[in-house]
Amino acid sequence: MSKPVCLYNGVVLTGFAVMERCAVLVQDGIISDIFSQKRFEKRHFDPDTVFFDAQGAYITPGFIDTHIHGYGGYGVDFDNTEEAFAAGEESVLSMSMLLADLGVTAFNPTLYPAKPEQLIRAVKTVASAMGKEKGARIMGIHLEGPFISPSRLGVQKLETIHPVDINLMEKLWEASEGHIVNMTVAPELKGMRELALFCIKKGIVMQAGHTDAEYGNMLEGMQVGILHSTHLFNAMRRLDHRNPNAVGAILIHNEMSCEIIADGFHVHLDLLKLLLSNKHNDKIVLITDSLKPTEQKEGPFFANGEEVVFRDGAFRRVSDDVIAGSGLTMIRGIQNLVTGGFNIEDAVRAASTNPANVMRYTNQGTIIPGKLADITVFDHNFNIKLVMVGGNIINNPAMNDGVCCSNKELQSGFNPF
Predict the structure, then answer these.
(1) What gap in Å lies between CA 350 and CA 334, rounded to an integer?
(2) Staple partner for 230: which of 25, 82, 127, 184, CB 3.0–4.6 Å?
(3) Contacts of 415 (CB under 8 A, 6+ apart)
(4) 9 secondary structure, DSSP code
(5) Can you identify the CATH homologous superfamily of domain 5-61+367-414?
(6) Greatest extent of the chain over all pairs of C-alpha atoms, in Å
(7) At what angle do helices 344-351 and 330-339 cross, to 10 degrees?
(8) Mean pLDDT for the stretch of residues 312-334
(9) 5-61+367-414 and 63-359 in the same fold
(10) Average pLDDT over residues 198-206
(11) In whole numbers, what is the pLDDT of the chain averaged over residues?
């Protein structure tokens, strides 16, 4: 068993409330208790307890990125080469470690569409890494296709998308060992109703994206459970005053939740005000959609098997300058949400509580006794101070600042109150 950990002298954002100058006690990987300064001063702790002085920083549920391809040169972009597949499992696990440094405690590795045999192999590779990670948890697989619109490809390749095929879907599910969590689809495609019913039975969250759906198509999709959406405003039919289309349906209907890439490029930050006025704050899910070369130190950089360059806030395909994806991190996304008009509680909720709720991760996303101790601490300048996954401190850059101590040290005068 790991030693108990007490995070104290912080602002606890529970996912539904703000608790000033409070403490969180973690025991055996679970959040054991949350209490005030007054109770902290009077409480007796296990002699082995490790204390972390948050120094007024935010203590929040760990960030959950449900749409991410890679980071730091690692990830699930296998570019269909033998070398990439051979290193695939280690690449996913390296991605897990790097993400934990950024406050991410759980993520859904996101696969590009590929030809059936290659996609099945990629699914198997990601599934094989689950349970071996030492950083952020691999929650399951996000399939961004292959059942998407040829009219809204973005950087996806035409030869990799596929008409709706239940037999293929069954093979993908089997290859994943039951670990496909969410799937981006175009609701207007023929056969989508049958696919939706399959996904409902398997517990797969379907989200509308890379779609040319008109308003009526979106309503039909909602009726069969497509109630989440992929990177709102991007790679979908735009709002029109005579036909609200995909964007309009997502904004109009309270039942729909939506991803948002808050990098200031994919979506103008002033549009966040429109989003806040149309969507309840529990329906907005912050994602990075970050690519494998995000913050990679040396180039050349590649994504989805093609060379890309980072310019003007986004990755672009070198061959034709098409936007290839984001270089965002979750902590910077939170900061941008605040810049765009979110309060800090709702920004953190978009990064933790909301993705947990949409993906049905019942043990994560809030700081409540009995929940998994997946916790991120960051200061008011959005610098990560501590990351904890399942009660284990994965990243503690504040250790060098002398803010961690033992129970004995605390009792000898370390108490800041």
Answers:
(1) 8
(2) 184
(3) 41
(4) E
(5) Urease, subunit C, domain 1 (2.30.40.10)
(6) 71
(7) 150
(8) 93
(9) no
(10) 98
(11) 93
- Digit-coded pLDDT (tens) for 336-394: 999 999 999 999 999 999 999 999 999 999 999 999 999 999 999 999 999 999 999 99
Q: Is 361 left (phi over 0), alpha (psi -120 to 50) or beta?
A: beta
Q: Locate tokens 């292959």: which residue? A: 146
76-109 pLDDT, tens digit each: 988 767 777 878 999 999 999 999 999 999 999 9
Distance from chain centroid for Cα 19: 24
Inter-residue contact 187 to 217 (CB < 8 Å): yes
C-alpha torsion angle, residues 200, 205, 211, 212 (rounded to 10): 50
**Domain 63-359 adopts which CATH fold?**
TIM Barrel (3.20.20)
Helix axes 88-100 and 116-129, enclosed angle (nearest 10): 50
Please give the DSSP secondary-structure letter assigned to residue 294.
T
Alpha helices in 224-368 (DSSP H): 245-252, 271-278, 330-339, 344-351, 353-359
Model confidence at 413, pLDDT cuts 50, 70, 90, reads very low
Closest CA to 208 of 190, 169, 235, 181: 235
Identify which of 361, 198, 341, 359 has the alpha carbon closest to the alpha carbon of residue 281. 341
Instruction: Please spell the DSSP secondary structure of 298-332, one letter per residue.
Output: SS-EEETTEEEEEETTEEEETTT--EEEB---HHH
Q: How far is CA 275 from the centre of its chain?
A: 19
**Per-residue model confidence (pLDDT) at position 124:** 97
Domain boundaries of the chain, sorted by first residue: 5-61+367-414, 63-359
Torsion of CA 62, 73, 68, 356, to 10 degrees: -20
d(CA 30, CA 39): 20
| 309, 349 Cβ separation under 8 angstroms | no
Strands 228-229 and 306-311: unpaired
pLDDT score for 405: 59
Q: What angle do CA 31, 33, 39 make, to 5 degrees?
A: 150
Place of tokens 């600042």: 401
Specify the residue for token string 């009660």: 391
- Give which of 253, 258, 230 is closest to 147, Cα–Cα: 230
From residue 14, give the alpha-carbon distance in Å to each of 17, 246, 376, 381, 388.
5, 33, 11, 19, 15
Lowest model confidence (mean pLDDT) among 83-97, 182-196, 253-267: 83-97
